[in-house]
Amino acid sequence: MSKIKVGVVGYGTIGKRVADAIRLQDDMELVGITANTYNYKIKAANKKGIKIFPMRGLSDKDHLNHGIDSVHGHAEDLIEQSDIIVDCTPKKTGYKKWYEKRGVKAIFQGGEKADMGTSFVSQCNYADAWGADYIRVVSCNTTGLCRTLKAVDSTYGVKQAHATLIRRAADPWDIYHGPVNALVPHLVVPSHHGPDVKTILPNMELFTTSVSVPTTLMHIHSISVDLEMPTVNIEGVVDLFRSTTRVRMVYNSDGIRSTAEILEYAKDLGRERGDMPEVCVWKETIGLKNDKLFYLQAIHQESDVVPENIDAIRAACKMCSGAESIRKTNLSLGI
Ligand SMILES: NC(=O)c1ccc[n+]([C@@H]2O[C@H](COP(=O)([O-])OP(=O)(O)OC[C@H]3O[C@@H](n4cnc5c(N)ncnc54)[C@H](OP(=O)(O)O)[C@@H]3O)[C@@H](O)[C@H]2O)c1
User: Fold this and answer.
1) What does the DSSP assignment read for 246-277?
2) pTM for this structure?
3) What's the CA-to-centroid distance between 62 and ligand 1, angstroms?
């Protein structure tokens, strides 16, 4: 079977992880990545043997000053040599016009507007994206909310839900953003996450509020759900999450009491870059009262959308069923 040729435009937090994940798939080939500036990330990519296609703004010989031995044409050449592009540029930068002009399919990220393409979370709506020219893998937070709420809805039914998002200030490498010393509520309700979940789960009545806090180590969601079919069986909820793909139960009894310990656990598991693409639900935070279910979940913002990008490529290129794609992607990433 010939491999699908994939290009990655934008090689930052998400792009570099997606590029590495593509290289692990037996049905995909990474054609290359773009460089917007020459920096340590591009140098590391060059060292891995990844082909680099500079944006036009970069001067012809500049790569040599950064110890990068060769580059390959320009970003436009990468697009022309690819069957599909994963665009991981910063929010509202996506180069849709380039892809339209060249008739190339593209996957965008959650920082783009919902009308950029079919919104996508693998385990919720893979079929909706079958053969789509443009797909938007929704944000890390929306992805995490959809994974667990879809599972709860399928088993118990969700009348309505509320989630408070406690959001990391910046990614670990990012010295430019904060807060450094304050808790900052998002002073508009609902935050955009609730409406964004509806682009995946149209019938989900979810109201979200959000606070940014001084950490780089994951987001936490505090979720309460009004169930259609109330239960008193906490073990049943635990089993539900245990059997839901890309959801991982974590336990106080194992010494996992914080996002710091989740990420230490990921490193101990030997995960690439210490990533934890699964949504982590603390068993001890699952509570039931009358018809309400409560739980706390943690989201590794740098990695939870990576498997979704791989599945989105297979959906767009009609490569295999959703279940098969999730199986292949999980296996390759050790999920
Ligand atoms: N980080 C997260 O927590 C996270 C989680 C889920 C989804 N997302 C979404 O994923 C997308 C990418 O976010 P990110 O965090 O990966 O961003 P990032 O780390 O800032 O990386 C962006 C990449 O795009 C390049 N770039 C910047 N401006 C460009 C331009 N005008 N043309 C071409 N390339 C350009 C950057 O190169 P230089 O560094 O050389 O400028 C960098 O390689 C966004 O839509 C974001 O909302 C982010």
Assistant:
1) TEEEE-GGGT--SHHHHHHHHHHTT-GGG---
2) 0.97
3) 21
